[in-house]
Amino acid sequence: HAFLWSQAGGIQDLGVLPGDTVSLANKVNDSGQVVGSSGASPSYNQYGILGLTGRGFVWTQANGMQDLNTLIPANSGWALISAVDVNYWGQIVGQGTINGKTHGFLLTPTNPFLR
Predict the structure, then answer these.
(1) Using CB atoms within 10 A of its CB, is residue 72 exposed (0-12), middle (13-18) or buried (19+)?
(2) CA angle 42, 26, 53 (to 5 degrees)
(3) N vs C: which end of the chain shows fewer Cβ within 10 Å?
(4) Would the CA dihedral through 50, 54, 58, 61 be positive or negative?
């Protein structure tokens, strides 16, 4: 499982999205937002880097782990499979598919200061 460590709280298990068994955290920003992937099984790519193809997530202390696909319009055509970075403003970048083709994405929150 993905986890978050802090000096004050120690290790906190972030869990998995419903129906999944594995999660992998990629980045945490200064506000404590964590992004990553949740899915069925991790694998190594051709460079020996551990990854997880599943559903991208964002985790916050207030809302827990949320599937990024539920935070975008349902008719967008996107399937967000991995979130790899989150910045100070809460913008999330990652990998997804649209119309059957793999692309990078950038999600910008409508109000980045309400985290």
Answers:
(1) middle
(2) 30
(3) N
(4) negative
pTM reported for the whole predicted model: 0.87
Residue 104 pairs in a beta bridge with: 95
Bridge pairing between strands 2-6 and 54-60: unpaired
One digit per residue, pLDDT tens: the chain, 115 residues?
999 998 888 999 999 999 999 999 999 999 999 999 999 877 777 777 776 778 999 999 999 999 999 999 999 999 999 999 999 999 999 999 998 899 999 999 886 555 4
> What 3-state DSSP class applies to 23?
strand
CA 40 – CA 71 distance, rounded (Å): 21
Residue where the block lists tokens 């967008």:
76
